[in-house]
Design a protein that fits this description.
219 residues; alpha+beta; 7-stranded mixed beta sheet; 22% strand; disordered C terminus
Length: 219
């Protein structure tokens, strides 16, 4: 599979997650358990995120392929952390994982400069995620304890679609993302749930995603 052939297929069935879903709760519990035993390196924490993505991909019939090689003419192939493939082996999105010791934005720019796909790529670490679509950062969310942001960025990643075979990787326009209501009661409920799951209190504040500007992700 070459970098030029990466392309999403026609729209898939609707996709939805909730904070109470087993996969979401399991994700936070897995990260908490890893933290409790001091396992913070990339290969350890990445397993929790891969499991969440596999749970979300299963109803669509998609498979997460780890260490996916992308051939490039005349230069060394790229080794992507993960790619979602359907039964026709058509890629729908790329995953790149880091641990919290890395600066995710710096790592993202370095990967894109090397030629990593920028049409629908989710750069992730336990505390933060950056969603790159059509060469721009469309979402930049804090994930530690902000359950609704985890759900919103995963849904946006899975909702990305294209209507034509591209010549430069993923090419499509995302539909408007559906976000959970930002009410004080809802925020308190999430904080309580996170405290029960992870044993920490949430002292931050919610951010309205509609007010977040898109940022160019590559220079």
């Amino acid at each position: 599979m070459s970098a030029q052939s990466l392309c999403p297929s026609p729209a898939a069935p609707p996709f939805s997650l909730k904070p109470t879903h087993k996969a979401v709760r399991g994700y936070y519990l897995a990260l908490a358990q890893l933290s409790n035993v001091g396992a913070a390196h990339e290969s350890a924490v990445r397993a929790a995120f891969d499991t969440l993505i596999e749970s979300a991909a299963s109803p669509l019939g998609w498979t997460l392929v780890r260490e996916y090689a992308v051939s490039r003419k005349g230069i060394a192939p790229l080794k992507l952390d993960g790619v979602l493939l359907d039964s026709y082996r058509i890629p729908h999105g790329v995953l790149e994982a880091k641990d919290d010791a890395d600066d995710l934005a710096v790592e993202m720019r370095a990967k894109l400069k090397l030629g990593y796909p920028s049409k629908n790529t989710l750069f992730w670490q336990p505390r933060r995620a950056l969603l790159v679509q059509d060469g721009k950062v469309t979402l930049d969310y804090q994930l530690d304890l902000l359950t609704w942001q985890l759900i919103a960025i995963v849904e946006s990643f899975f909702s990305y679609r294209g209507d034509a075979m591209p010549t430069d990787g993923f090419r499509c326009s995302p539909p408007p993302a559906a976000f959970f209501p930002l009410t004080s009661d809802y925020n308190r409920a999430l904080s309580l749930m996170a405290k029960r799951l992870i044993g920490k209190t949430y002292a931050g504040k919610m951010v309205d995603p509609e007010a977040m500007p898109a940022k160019a992700c590559a220079s």
